[in-house]
Design a protein that fits this description.
The protein has about 270 residues and is mainly alpha-helical. The strands form two sheets. Strands 1-2 form a two-stranded parallel sheet. The chain has a two-stranded antiparallel sheet with strand order 3-4. The chain starts with 8 loop residues before the first helix and ends in a 10-residue tail after the last helix.
Length: about 270
């Protein structure tokens, strides 16, 4: 007969699920639809740019005459990175790149993100930059608190706290469990989405934000005693150093607003 034979749902379903899952995974890993060579080339370029930025941040701060933190030469941190540290750094570097591709795709296609010069405005640049930092720490602070609970600390966050006195910049900042990396990147994603929906966002703001985001994360894991006021907030490397020395305080990444509201802020203590 020319009529097609009936096909059971049970026979078709696995193939459909596999096709959808494969498509979703491909979209997640390669939202810009890059060729394999371009994808790998982009990863290499991102990794090199981040390493150069890490060196540049250290050089700029050192050249500015910033003093070393009071704990320098008084306390000792993790002397050498181990095999697991390098594995986590490599895995997290890939995770970071995948998130970056997703954010690039969003910035390129979303109607909430301006891309032209004439789209630039006070609201989607300076105000948006302020909102992103506030919302990111708003998301990250409770997540960080959660990672310090007994259920998660031993299996996830404890690895990052093997370094009780950060010194290496990006290698110490990125040396965390991959689950923690996903959580941190998800907070950034959430902050960008909330900001773009609330007040709009410009692609240039996203670029500037990530430059500052990376620089401050690097500074948080260097030995320079840097403190400054910006956009109504006070940033200090001392705050994050205190978190590494005394893990039950200063959970926010950059500004201590949420810690002060939660009662988890702890002022800097010079070791005797």
């Amino acid at each position: 007969s020319w009529l097609p034979k009936p096909v059971s749902v049970a026979a078709v379903a696995p193939g459909v699920v596999a096709a959808v899952s494969g498509s979703s995974m491909e979209t997640l890993l390669n939202p810009l639809e890059l060729s394999p060579l371009m994808w790998v080339g982009g990863y290499v370029a991102k990794t090199a740019a981040l390493a150069i930025w890490d060196l540049a941040v250290g050089f700029i701060v050192k050249s500015s005459g910033a003093p070393k933190l009071p704990t320098t030469d008084k306390l000792k941190g993790l002397p050498e990175l181990q095999q697991l540290d390098y594995i986590y750094l490599a895995v997290n570097s890939v995770i970071e790149y995948i998130f970056m591709l997703g954010i690039m795709s969003y910035a390129w296609t979303s109607p909430d993100v301006g891309r032209r010069v004439e789209d630039l405005g006070l609201l989607n640049t300076l105000v948006a930059l302020w909102v992103i930092f506030v919302v990111d720490d708003f998301f990250y602070t409770p997540c960080h608190l959660l990672m310090h609970t007994k259920a998660l600390y031993k299996y996830v966050h404890k690895h990052h706290h093997r370094q009780n006195l950060p010194t290496r910049g990006y290698p110490d900042a990125g040396n965390e469990h991959p689950i923690e990396q996903v959580i941190g990147m998800s907070c950034v994603w959430g902050a960008l989405l909330v900001t773009s929906k609330l007040i709009g966002l410009h692609a240039a703001t996203v670029l500037i934000y990530f430059g500052l985001y990376a620089a401050l994360a690097m500074l948080n894991h260097m030995r320079y005693d840097v403190t400054f006021n910006a956009l109504g907030f006070t940033y200090s490397v001392r705050c994050h150093e205190m978190h590494h020395r005394f893990p039950r305080c200063n959970y926010a990444q950059y500004f201590m607003l949420w810690d002060k509201l939660l009662g988890t802020y702890r002022d800097y203590e010079v070791p005797k």
